[in-house]
């Protein structure tokens, strides 16, 4: 990383840049996503700007001041975000203090000091609960879900009645939102679907070629390749919306041989950012709070399947959760469902011999 015999104009800056490049190579060797590597690098540079010093000068107090600054001003980051920042700085600290890489010796020889680990158990956030998301994020009720789809469908007729362009895109967007909910997909999983990912389920012949979706770009973890899963179709109305889009609407986009299921007017794959923006515009039109985002549709899918009586193991497999506890985090059943369960339990108790009250 450093060139022997070459004197840098700014020795400290050159060494810091070399540290970051070495850390980036180490992470790439672990097969981490390039976006993760870049994000962590930017955070370390941001921390350096905040302290006005280089890693071999950092102290634990600097981390504490940095975290405090991010929590103040009414725009504080979430617990999960702050913990993520601290985790990235901890990893960088582990890299530059690891004797196998020699950075401490290099700093000692050049500057008479060396980097130390500034992230410890006494000054970093504790991962005490499984769910650290915003409390305002929740599953939509069935009525809210229907209102969203009705609003999306109404945009198609509104554009047509005004004689404006964009009816194809409006129909596509309405169908896409229904697919995100109808198969419990993440946004990246939805936009990365290809036509070839629509599969037949021989057990449900009525769904024809849309009995299942093959998700090939599921959420990766710890440098692994994207996880794959097959999501079975459970809602006939969602299958109908997808089939109508594929058969009657998508061909009019003129995408030719492009493999993507969701295409733009220019014949390219639709982006996740566009999908977020479309949901946001519909949410604002409906007057919903900003805490509700596209991912709420995935939470809603899990919740509504549980309320409908589907086994938890089936639901976990559908959404790609390795543990039922993760699925439980997504579940926020309504009062009607809880009251039905309570009534059933009470009925069973009363109906059992000796289950009633003593007279």
Task: Describe it.
The chain has 359 residues and is mostly helical. The protein folds into two domains: 11-111; 142-294, Intergrase catalytic core (hpI Integrase, Chain A). 53% of the residues lie in helices and 4% in strands. The chain has helices at 11-29, 34-51, 60-71, 79-97, 103-111, 142-161, 167-182, 187-191, 236-249, 272-286, 296-307, 312-319, 324-330, 335-351, and strands spanning 198-199, 212-218, 227-232. It has a three-stranded antiparallel sheet. α11 packs antiparallel against α12. Residues 354-359 have low confidence and may be disordered.
Structural domain tally: 2
The largest sheet, given as strand count, sense and whether it forms a barrel, is: 3 strands, antiparallel
Question: What oligomeric state do these chains adopt?
Answer: single chain
Which strand order spans the largest sheet, edge to edge or round the barrel?
A: 1-2-3
CATH class of the largest domain: Mainly Alpha
What name does CATH use for the topology of the largest domain? hpI Integrase, Chain A
Question: How is this structure best summarized?
Answer:
This protein is 53% helix and 4% strand.
């Amino acid at each position: 990383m450093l060139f022997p015999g070459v004197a840098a104009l700014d020795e400290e800056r050159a060494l810091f840049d070399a540290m970051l490049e070495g850390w980036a190579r180490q992470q790439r060797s672990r097969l981490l996503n390039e976006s993760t590597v870049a994000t962590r690098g930017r955070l370390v540079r941001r921390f350096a700007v905040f302290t006005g010093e280089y890693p071999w000068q950092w102290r634990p107090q600097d981390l504490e001041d940095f975290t405090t600054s991010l929590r103040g001003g009414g725009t504080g980051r979430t617990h999960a975000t702050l913990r993520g920042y601290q985790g990235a700085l901890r990893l960088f600290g582990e890299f530059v203090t690891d004797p196998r890489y020699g950075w401490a010796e290099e700093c000692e020889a050049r500057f008479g000091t060396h980097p130390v680990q500034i992230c410890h158990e006494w000054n970093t956030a504790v991962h005490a609960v499984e769910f650290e998301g915003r409390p305002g994020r929740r599953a939509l009720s069935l009525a809210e879900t229907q209102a969203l789809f009705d609003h999306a469908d109404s945009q198609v007729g509104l554009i047509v009645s005004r004689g404006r362009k964009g009816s194809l895109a409006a129909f596509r967007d309405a169908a896409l939102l229904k697919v995100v909910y109808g198969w419990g997909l993440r946004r990246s999983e939805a936009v990365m679907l290809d036509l070839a990912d629509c599969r037949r389920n021989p057990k449900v012949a009525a769904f024809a070629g849309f009995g299942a979706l093959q998700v090939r770009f599921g959420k990766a973890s710890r440098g692994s390749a994207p996880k794959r899963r097959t999501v079975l179709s459970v809602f006939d109305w969602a299958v109908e919306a997808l089939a109508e889009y594929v058969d009657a609407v998508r061909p009019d986009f003129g995408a030719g041989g492009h493999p993507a299921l969701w295409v733009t007017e220019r014949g390219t794959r639709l982006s996740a950012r566009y999908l977020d923006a479309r949901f946001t515009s519909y949410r604002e039109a409906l007057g919903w709070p900003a805490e509700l985002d596209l991912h709420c549709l995935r939470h809603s899918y899990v919740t509504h399947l549980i309320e409908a009586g589907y086994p938890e193991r089936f639901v976990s497999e559908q959404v790609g959760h390795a543990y039922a506890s993760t699925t439980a985090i997504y579940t926020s059943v309504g009062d009607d469902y809880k009251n039905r369960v309570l009534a059933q339990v009470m009925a069973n108790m009363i109906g059992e011999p000796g289950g009633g009250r003593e007279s």
